Amino acid sequence: MRLSPTAARLFLRCLHLRPCSAWGGRGGRMTGRLKELWSYGRLLLKSLCFNALCNFDVFLDSIFEPVYWLVDHLTRWFGVVFVCLVILLTSSVLVIVYYFVLPLIISTYPAHWVTWHLCYGHWNLLMIVFHYYKAIRTSPGHPLQMKTDIPSVSICKKCIFPKPARTHHCSICNRCVLKMDHHCPWLNNCVGHLNHRYFFSFCLFMTMGCIYCSVSCWDMFVGAYNAVEVSVVLTGVSRDHNYYQTPEPLFTFTEKLFHKCMIYLWVLTSSVAVALTGLTLWHAALITRGETSVERHINRKEARRLRDSGKVFRNPYNYGKVENWRIFFGVKKRSHWLTHVLLPSDHAPFGEGLTWDRSVYRRDPTAI
Ligand SMILES: [Zn+2]
Ligand SMILES: [Zn+2]
């Protein structure tokens, strides 16, 4: 494209460049001016994007934003699959127990053991089903999205609403959650103020149920495993010595099915027991300290920062070990430890989750 000399002069004046008589003859001057133009452009771009709150973390967050988006959406979708998986696997264990294990126990065990298995097994099952259903169906609790007098600690960058103490934004639910612990894909729900107790009780009773199943079925599992081993060896020997005759079946179809079911039951329940024991103990330690999973990371960081300046960090929501558990389970009197913890109960937790008592007893005067 060819520009007229006047238009070219005007364009260069806009860019603060004086026209050269010869474009190719003074290469050095031209390069210098281009560099000047380049730095001017960069400064212009920086001034347009400048934000005093920007730091390296914001930069990293922006870079990984597409990855977060993908993970959030996948977790939201996988949540449904995970819930179906929990229901399917639990149902398969129940079918095996009711079809094979329980009739065997009733026909072979003494009366007191039969009573124990019937009572404990059904109580544990009831607690698992109740707490899982409540953990899925109960909303974790959200702050009010309107102007209120409730004291807030900050403003949520996503919701653009005040955040009360212990509230955090869940990028999967795309909402702020009161006393947020974490987003659980196995529940397809956030764990927060209103359903934290249901989540923990589910983990606890599921762990107890899995340990109970794997311990109770140990003898049956060993018997089934040995039977399958013998069956495989004998079938192999029989095949080696007699090519043209079908070997006699060692076990009936029902017996074979029983062996396979027992191996499946034991492997599944024992592996879930190992994984869930770790998770339950971790959450029990957090509850004892009066922390949520999110606060654990924040508090650890804060403790390190204060240690460097010679101060001690004290969690303002730690009311003492027993008191933390009492508040967590919503126990108001002694009998509640039985009726609210060891029996299905849908009582609401203490407080509405918007304000928290920070009057913690401090022995150390340097504690913050
Ligand atoms: Zn939010
Ligand atoms: Zn969530």
TrEMBL record:
GO molecular function, one term: protein-cysteine S-palmitoyltransferase activity
Regions crossing the membrane: 77-101, 113-133, 198-221, 263-287
Subcellular location: Membrane
Enzyme Commission numbers on file: 2.3.1.225
InterPro entries: Palmitoyltrfase_DHHC, PFA4/ZDH16/20/ERF2-like
Keywords tagged on the record: Acyltransferase, Membrane, Transferase, Transmembrane, Transmembrane helix
EC class of the enzyme, as a word: transferase
Record's protein name: Palmitoyltransferase
